[in-house]
Specification:
48% of the residues are buried. The protein has 310 residues and is mainly alpha-helical. It is globular. It is built from 13 helices and no strands. The chain is 73% helix and 0% strand.
């Protein structure tokens, strides 16, 4: 799962003049970024036969650290100033735990199935937004959430023994991913995107490094070494692409691109692991994606109404 900031915060400083959005370029960057993230997930799944998920997540975090180093050179140490250090630390910890659960789950579950389950995250965000942030959720969105969870049950099919129980780890990872988004909403009025990315990298890397000595295995064959390097490098490039996309394009335009992950995951799953989702998984995925898109639409309408009322 991407460890990028989940919501496009305000990244402009007071001295900067807002520029007109470049939606087409942003869409291209976002789509390419998610294509690369799917490649990272594929390599991670491949490496789970040889290395512990903690080591794989740690390697992936190197890419995020690389992205933060670039940001530090570009923006300077000002991006480390935060008005909400505890929330930033909590968000960074949740991000790395979510990634570890996802990779541990995907070591047992087909890639496309795992990605389909993660699509439930926007629905969980709506639920958490109502519970934690006291956001108003109308019956349209509650209905979409209910139908979306039915779609999730179609993919998982609990009790039938068709999907490995480790899919529950993926569902837990998606729930943490959603909680991360809620924390992003709480942080957004105080810190910009770059600060959030920096703390996600620093806190996440520090946390995942603690158990690393107990599970570390030195890569011995050239393929493993190349894949480890590729995971870090490609993840770093993908992070920067998505960050740039969020900076230059409108969030409402970019949000649905997340669902392109299922296309790349099916493709990679077939080419690398000779795995294809069955008909029920495709039906459940379609239900989840449709309700997710509808939920995004209703949230945009609600946000527009709030702005009109101000």
């Amino acid at each position: 799962m991407p460890t990028i900031p989940d919501l496009p915060h305000n990244t402009a400083t007071p001295s900067e003049t807002p520029k007109a959005p470049s939606n087409l370029k942003g869409l291209a960057l976002m789509a390419l970024g998610f294509f690369l993230f799917a490649a990272v997930d594929t390599m991670a799944k491949f490496l789970t036969d040889l290395f512990h998920p903690v080591q794989i997540v740690w390697t992936r975090q190197l890419g995020l650290l690389f992205g933060v180093l670039v940001l530090l050179l570009w923006r300077g140490p000002v991006i480390l100033r935060t008005a909400r250090p505890k929330l930033q630390a909590l968000r960074g910890a949740i991000a790395v735990i979510s990634a570890t659960c996802f990779i541990l789950g995907v070591s047992f579950v087909p890639l496309a199935d795992a990605v389909a389950v993660t699509f439930v995250a926007p629905l969980i965000v709506t639920v958490l937004g109502a519970v934690i942030l006291r956001e108003t959720v109308g019956w349209h969105r509650w209905a979409a959430i209910f139908i979306g969870f039915i779609g999730t049950l179609i993919v998982i099919r609990p009790g039938l023994g068709i999907v490995h129980p480790a899919v529950l780890l993926v569902l837990f990872a998606a729930s943490l991913f959603a909680l991360r988004q809620v924390l992003s909403r709480m942080i957004a009025p105080y810190d910009n995107t770059y600060t959030t990315v920096a703390y996600t990298a620093l806190v996440g890397s520090a946390l995942i490094s603690l158990p690393l000595p107990f599970v570390w295995i030195w890569p011995s064959d050239p393929v493993s070494i190349v894949l480890m390097i590729a995971i870090a490098a490609i993840a770093g490039v993908a992070e920067l692409m998505v960050i740039r996309a969020l900076e230059i394009a409108e969030a409402v335009v970019l949000a649905p691109v997340h669902y392109s992950m299922i296309l790349w995951s099916v493709m990679y799953g077939y080419l690398v692991f000779a795995q294809l989702p069955d008909g029920w998984t495709l039906i459940g995925t379609a239900v989840i994606v449709a309700t997710g898109l509808y939920t995004m639409h209703r949230e945009r309408l609600a946000a527009r109404s709030r702005r009109a009322a101000v």
